[in-house]
């Protein structure tokens, strides 16, 4: 796949991405995929730390290509007065600022929301922190893994007789990035489509992004006082559910989230007797015998290979999937048909594969128009082309380490 040149749904929206690492930048990338112009503002000579985050190949940080596509890199020292002045010039011509400095940092530098709103009253600022802009923890350093633990998510994962398990990748950051994109679009819709629409500041926190998904814990504890303990898979929702080992030694996951789905599975296992047995005929009864029911399914799964099971259960309408490695994903025809993995040019590695654009729009599909930029790639384009600085002025800014 070569970089595409298409008009996107967000064409004409300009976003200043002041953020670093994953959560907020990922949100900006999602918006960039659908046509927004994203100007990534980075510290001169340093850049976003994500540029140098592992894994690596031939000295290149491999995460950068996927998370920084469709962005323009402008180096700008926001701590210097001239840097702040240039930022305000950009804000005048932009719709959104996305930032994830620790609470109060931009205010200390004189470029917080109130200051930037003075130069652009219609500005939307999306602010990402670990614990939010308010409350007793507002000024704490916020990173994804501690925020995941604080949200209640980590407590649920692992085995009861072992320590809790954190996600093996930056799950909370990516989930928060989706909230960043959602919040930006909601604020833009209000500003541009409602009669009383105005710009506003949006407060997004890492821990709240995860906590919002745990409503089943909240009401259960409120009404019953029950504290859900950790388990290695789905529990407390439906039975059977979990990981099962096939005849050929492959792991699959199978769930029956409704009695109708269990009915299909029972027929597939030739255990229609379970549908009238009072011990198993409803989900509430099966949940009381979770290990027993899972054991019945496990014994049956062991009689079939992964491929046999997949074909058979697909025909029966029972939701099941092999547990894929990234190698499995690369070889799967569904991923290929959906263009979930695409190849783009890289300035040093030649070509790299990165995730494709999701979701799929019928009229205004997202696209990968630009590869992830090198540090300061677009300084001249932005400073000269957008703001009107001369070559001499740009050279002076560079000499003063402002850009």
From TrEMBL:
Gene3D superfamilies: Crotonobetainyl-coa:carnitine coa-transferase, domain 1, formyl-coa transferase, domain 3
GO molecular function terms noted in the UniProt entry: CoA-transferase activity
Pfam family, one: CoA_transf_3
Keywords: Transferase
Transferase recorded as keyword: yes
Coiled coil: none
Protein name listed in UniProt: Formyl-CoA transferase
């Amino acid at each position: 796949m070569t970089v595409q040149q298409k008009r996107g749904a967000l064409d004409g929206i300009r976003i200043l991405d002041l953020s670093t690492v994953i959560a907020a930048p990922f949100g900006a990338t999602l918006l960039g995929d659908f046509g927004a112009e994203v100007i990534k503002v980075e510290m001169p000579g340093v850049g976003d730390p994500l540029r140098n985050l592992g894994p690596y190949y031939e000295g290149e940080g491999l995460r950068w290509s996927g998370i920084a596509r469709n962005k323009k890199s402008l180096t700008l020292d926001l701590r210097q007065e001239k840097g702040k002045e240039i930022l305000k010039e950009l804000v005048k011509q932009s719709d959104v600022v996305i930032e994830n400095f620790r609470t109060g940092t931009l205010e200390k530098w004189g470029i917080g929301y109130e200051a930037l709103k003075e130069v652009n009253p219609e500005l939307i600022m999306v602010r990402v922190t670990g614990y939010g802009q308010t409350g007793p923890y507002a000024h704490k350093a916020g990173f994804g893994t501690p925020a995941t633990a604080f949200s209640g998510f980590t407590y649920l994962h692992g085995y009861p007789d072992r320590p809790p398990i954190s996600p093996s990748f930056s799950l909370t950051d990516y989930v928060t990035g989706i909230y960043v994109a959602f919040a930006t679009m909601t604020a833009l819709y209000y500003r541009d489509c409602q009669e009383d629409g105005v710009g506003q500041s949006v407060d997004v926190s890492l821990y709240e992004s995860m906590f919002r998904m745990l409503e089943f814990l909240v009401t259960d504890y409120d009404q019953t006082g029950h504290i859900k303990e950790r388990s290695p898979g789905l529990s407390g929702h439906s039975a059977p559910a979990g990981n099962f080992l096939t005849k050929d030694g492959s792991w699959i996951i199978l769930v029956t989230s409704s009695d109708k789905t269990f009915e299909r599975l029972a027929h597939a296992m030739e255990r229609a007797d379970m549908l009238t047995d009072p011990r198993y005929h409803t989900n509430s009864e099966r949940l009381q015998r979770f290990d027993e029911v899972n054991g019945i399914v496990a014994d049956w799964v062991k009689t079939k290979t992964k491929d046999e099971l997949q074909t058979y259960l697909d025909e029966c309408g029972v939701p099941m999937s092999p547990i894929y490695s990234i190698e499995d994903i690369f070889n799967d025809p569904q991923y290929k048909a959906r263009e979930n993995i695409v190849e783009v040019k890289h300035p040093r590695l030649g070509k790299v594969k990165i995730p494709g654009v999701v979701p799929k729009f019928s009229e205004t599909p997202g696209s990968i128009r630009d590869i992830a930029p090198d540090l300061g790639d677009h300084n001249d384009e932005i400073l000269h082309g957008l703001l009107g600085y001369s070559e001499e002025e740009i050279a002076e800014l560079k000499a003063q380490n402002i850009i």
